Amino acid sequence: MSEINIQDIIKPENLVYEKTKLMTDKTLSYCPGCGHGTTHRLMMEVIEELGQENDTIGVAPVGCSVLAYEFMNVDMQEAAHGRAPAVATGIKRLWPDKVVFTYQGDGDLAAIGTAETIHACNRGEQIVIIFINNGIYGMTGGQMAPTTLPGMKTSTSPYGREIESMGNPLKITELIAQLPGTYYVTRHSVQTPAAARKAKRAIKKAFQNQIDGKPGLSFVEVVSNCNSGWKMDPVQSNTWMEENMFPYYQLGDIKVDGKLL
Amino acid sequence: MGELKLMKGNEALAEAAIRAGVDGYFGYPITPQSEVIEYLMAEKPHERTGMVVLQAESEVASINMLYGGGGTGKKVMTSSSSPGISLMQEGLSYMAGGEIPCVVANIVRGGPGLGDIQPAQSDYFQSVKGGGHGDYRLPVLAPASVQEMSDFVPIAYDLAFKYRTPVLIVSDGLIGQMMEKVELFDQMPRLTDEEINEKYPWATNGKPVGKEKRVLTSLDLDPHKLEKHNFKLQAKYKKIEEEEVQFELIDCEDADYIIVAYGSSSRIAQKTVQLAREEGIKVGLLRPITLWPFPKKPIDDLVVKGVKGFLSVEMSAGQMVEDVKLTVRERTKVEHFGRYGGVIHSPEEVLDALKSKIIGG
Lengths: 261, 361
What we know:
The complex is a heterodimer of chains A (261) and B (361).
Chain A: H1 6-9, H2 35-49, E1 56-60, H3 68-71, E2 75-78, H4 84-94, E3 99-105, H5 106-112, H6 114-123, E4 128-133, E5 136-137, E6 143-144, H7 163-166, H8 172-177, E7 182-189, H9 193-211, E8 217-223, H10 227-230, H11 234-248, E9 252-256, E10 259-260
Parallel strand pairs in A: 1-2, 1-3, 3-4, 4-8, 7-8
Antiparallel strand pairs in A: 5-6, 7-9, 9-10
Chain B: E1 3-8, H1 9-19, E2 24-27, H2 35-43, H3 45-48, E3 52-55, H4 59-70, E4 76-80, H5 82-87, H6 89-98, E5 102-108, H7 124-128, E6 140-141, H8 146-163, E7 166-172, H9 173-177, E8 179-184, H10 193-199, E9 215-216, H11 223-243, E10 247-250, E11 257-260, H12 263-278, E12 283-288, E13 290-292, H13 296-305, E14 309-313, H14 320-328, E15 333-337, H15 347-359
Parallel strand pairs in B: 2-3, 2-4, 4-5, 5-7, 6-7, 11-12, 11-14, 14-15
Antiparallel strand pairs in B: 1-8, 6-13, 10-12
């Protein structure tokens, strides 16, 4: 067998996959196996495929993805904790023809920013919200989140989340789906290639809705893992997510084209 | 001559926002300044200039809408009163750090806490010393009439965009609520999107074709880089202190005693000057127009000239008096007088205080 020269293979006609140019070359700050990186890539692929590179403004959150603006190669603003939907409102109202998105975690969107989330949804702001739900505060070291499951151990619920004293996990996605201002509400995951492809279709639909001027906000939840916060390896955390998170946070569309399913 | 109207201070501020070519106003009602958003909603500025007006769910949301809109190079504004301004301090700190221009009007009411809805000047510290967390300052303009509620709006935007900073207009319930004749300036055009792109290359309104993306953030996890960013901010503040001080001197040439007062208090003190001079007491009034940067030099000049004492007259328990003292540095007498908690002092009370605390004290 003759030796294969790698340089002979790198030709445009052999190209089957390319990193989107809307992801920078900066090394991701996320833990190996974390869903943030995959979700970033899916979003940036969608924005590139929709030809919106020069017309998109993103709003980054506070949390593990606080540095999302270093990885996403579009104009970005870094918001205070929980305030991204208000920041995005300010942008979209003054630049209605631009594409505006927020990228937020569960603590950001469903605890400190609940008011901003609900009211942006209720006003029907024509923005996209991508919501990463991993049931924990990753960046600050694994504290309990509004979405932490009953009995789940975190550094501020070391004996497990006790519903009587710590309250229930908040299904914010079902909550905002009830509001007439939301147009598209869906829940996905990105832990397998099949799941990531589905999630990408949902993200694309969300951005397309905004480009088409559909009346209302498009909201995509991505149920994700946090292997470091959950004290598991990446494979274990994906299994745990499938067995524990998915039954509580059921995947699939909740509201499509303004109609609850 | 511009259009003459009889207006409330709050209405003059709102009308000036439309005429200054503001792109977006985001606000939340609070007494004694709700007329600002009421006037704007009734006036349909979208039909006049294309200006957007939105009632937010809270002051926290409205200041963050300013962050978003201001970050795209648009002229954005909000207004509130003391408790609401406290809620905005987080956003103002982030905007100072991220160098995002905006104008915020505080129609100050009595405090602390919920306080009351009567006029006060007790937010001086919060306005001029930073207000939120971190090392920063904001330029603060203090109108003393309904006319200035209008006139200071375009001045505030010039400062906001020249220095890429939030600018405060600090007034009080008295000026906000009272009606006076005001000469309105002519309509200024809003900038087009193309003009914004040309003037503000930092604005995050969609990455220009073939160019690098723009990011607005107040975060840098590397302490040395963050220190460098802070050096840059401090250099900017130094420049503002050197170049943007504004003040007014009334009857100070021959004065033995000086009242330092701003906003409503300066209007009252003007009468005190008159009453004192009728009694043969030579009193002058120094009115800071910018509360920060504080007019240190004119005070210093008056000390050097041999003024015998300064009375800082504020509707507060004594806040600006600290800046007067820092400038005078014990070379002559400095005292404070003022009613507060929503009570307004009379010109006679000020004169009595001048006599007891400065002249006879």
